[in-house]
Amino acid sequence: MTAFAAGRPTPFLLNALLALTVALTAALAIARPLVPASRLGDLLDATICWASAATSDRPATRPTVVGSEPLASDAGKRITSMIVDFPPNAFSPEHHHEADLYVYVLQGTIHSQLGGQPAMTYTAGQSFFEPEGSVHVFAENASPTEPARILAVFVHREGARLIVFH
């Protein structure tokens, strides 16, 4: 069985690559004095963006890790923040997070749906919360012409997969 169909990796391969990337990022974080903090998220950024693009014919979201720090009050947990850019008509397919996630819309309009809930529309200045493990049915930029941008803040255990596509 091949890992690629029509030139695209399977969800299994994507999840395996994401898990490996998160593990490598965590290992690099331990070696922080040897690796500039500005480089820790580069591998994770590229993998998440590639995985997102590989699951839809619509434009992909573009995540950028802007920070990741251990929680002083809870050993083994981290807080990681990302800016996620949604080009016009961008789409993120069904996935979940091994983290609690707070999302704040910085620009534009986002349509989003969590499993068992109605689809919602969020505009700049609004926010929503996703409990760990909840299924995010989809997220998309509501506009075919204007970009959108969110701030995503994950609270997670060390080594957790931040995005797991289904």
Could you list some keywords that capture this structure?
41% strand; six-stranded antiparallel sheet; 166 residues; 13 strands; 3 helices; alpha+beta; disordered N terminus; five-stranded antiparallel sheet
Helix content: 10-25%
Radius of gyration based on Cα positions: 16 Å
> Using DSSP, what is the number of strands?
13
For the sheet with most strands, the description reads: 6 strands, antiparallel
What do you see in this structure?
The chain is of the alpha+beta class and 166 residues long. Helix content is 22%, strand content 41%. It contains 3 helices and 13 strands; from the N terminus they run ββαααβββββββββββ. It has helices spanning 11-30, 37-40, 42-53; strands at 4-5, 8-9, 62-70, 77-86, 91-92, 95-96, 100-107, 109-114, 120-123, 127-130, 135-141, 148-157, 164-165. The strands form 3 sheets. Strands 5, 6, 8, 9, 11 and 13 form a 6-stranded antiparallel sheet that branches. It has a 5-stranded antiparallel sheet with strand order 3-4-12-7-10, with helices on one face. A hairpin with a 6-residue loop joins β3 (62-70) and β4. The longest helix has 20 residues, at 11-30.
Quick rundown:
The protein has 166 residues and is of the alpha+beta class. The chain has 3 helices and 13 strands; from the N terminus they run ββαααβββββββββββ.
SSE layout and pairing:
Blueprint: E1 4-5, E2 8-9, H1 11-30, H2 37-40, H3 42-53, E3 62-70, E4 77-86, E5 91-92, E6 95-96, E7 100-107, E8 109-114, E9 120-123, E10 127-130, E11 135-141, E12 148-157, E13 164-165
Antiparallel strand pairs: 1-2, 3-4, 4-12, 5-11, 6-11, 6-13, 7-10, 7-12, 8-9, 8-11
Helix pairs in contact: 1-3
